Amino acid sequence: MIAFSTQDSSLNKDIVLKAVIYTPSEPVVASWLERMRALLPDWTFNALTEENDPETVQYAVVWRPQTGDIAKFPNLKAVVSIGAGIDHVLADEELPRHLPIIRTVGADLTQFMREYVALHVLRHHRNRPHQAAAQARAEWDAVEVPPAPQRRVGVMGLGNLGGVAAQTLAGLGFQTVGWARSPREIDGVTGYFGAENFDAFLEGTEILVNLLPLTEETKGVLNADTFAKLPKGACIINAARGPHLVEEDLLSTLDSGQIAQATLDVFNVEPLPSDHLFWKHPAITVTPHIASRIDSGTGSRIIAANLEAFEKTGTVKDLADAVRGY
Questions:
Q1: Is 160's pLDDT higher than 70?
Q2: Burial 228-238 (b: 16+ CB within 10 A, else e)
Q3: CA-to-CA distance for 267 and 17, rounded, in angstroms?
Q4: Which residues are catalytic?
Q5: What's the pLDDT tens digit per position in 294-311?
Q6: Is the Cβ–Cβ distance between 236 and 262 less than 8 Å?
Q7: Are the CB atoms for 318 and 102 separated by under 8 Å?
Q8: Are residues 155 and 252 in the same domain?
């Protein structure tokens, strides 16, 4: 955790702005300190443990805060999520519900997700896991696959990240479909919207990409019922949140062959425990929550700009809707 303060030269010299930053990793916090000092040289940064006057803190910048951490500061103006999702903030049962929550999104993060989704959709489309297994056996096994326009790929969630990912897949030639709660227009993507159209979206989808926000309605959406509505041998990519997936249902449908392969970037417990079955399952690819990773270099630039903008105007374009959960 770190805390920082500054005097805003554009305002009264006596006005001091303060914020606290929290991530579960102290080494990561040290990196944020270095980056933020470089970006905001007029700001003074302190470790949170050195912040002895919580009533003067106006902003909390957090990733997976512990329950009660945010409520320690009675005069906060806003909370900043170090990430596009806000579920980890809303999980704090003592969170003051009146506080605005600012999401952290930007071109770099969108590009990372575009790359990740394209990479792993193409891996499944060209059946790369099968080829890797054949190479390990020294077998020359040329598997036939259809061209991209004959492969239906579905993206669940068409927000900042999902919309760009879907557009990227359409650009690669895939028959791309998308599903979201409310209508979105995306070039090259056939949209399905609302719960009443979910089954139609799943029908015929051979590669399913989940980029939904995590809410009470979407928790556990990757389950046996969803998998059963996909064509036999479909593939799953989850790059949203771990609780979207019912792990036991994935394992059973992999064993039955209903699902052929899965790529998982997010998990219920992170880091993924070393004894977890996913690590050694031959049909599962595990990546360590890197699809659209916000490191201090990328995130600090976005967050610094958002803090300054919010202080000056009382709003930013990336304000979340706490009622919807994203």
A1: yes
A2: ebbeeebbbbb
A3: 36
A4: 241, 289
A5: 888 889 999 999 999 999
A6: yes
A7: yes
A8: yes
Residues contacting 221, CB < 8 A, separation 6+: 156, 210, 212, 244
- Largest Cα–Cα separation, the chain: 73
Same domain, 117 and 216: yes
Instruction: Identify whether 113 is part of a domain.
Output: yes
- 253: tokens are 């449908």
Q: Are residues 155 and 273 in the same domain?
A: yes
Structure-block tokens of residue 73 = 């500061």
Pairing of strands 152-156, 234-238: unpaired
Burial of 247 (0-12, 13-18, 19+ CB in 10 A): middle
Residue 322 lies in a domain: no
Same domain for 118 and 100, yes or no, is no
CA distance 170 to 176: 5
Q: The domain that contains 17 carries what CATH number?
A: 3.40.50.720
Measure the CA–CA gap between 7 and 311, rounded to whole angstroms: 12
What residues make up the domain containing 238?
107-286
Count: domains in the chain = 2
d(CA 59, CA 4): 10
CA–CA gap between residue 19 and residue 45 (Å, rounded) = 9
Is position 233 within any domain? yes
What pLDDT is stored for residue 246 in this prediction?
Answer: 98
DSSP, res 261: E
Task: Using a pLDDT cut of 70, give the percent of the chain over it.
Answer: 93
* Rg of the chain in Å (alpha carbons): 22
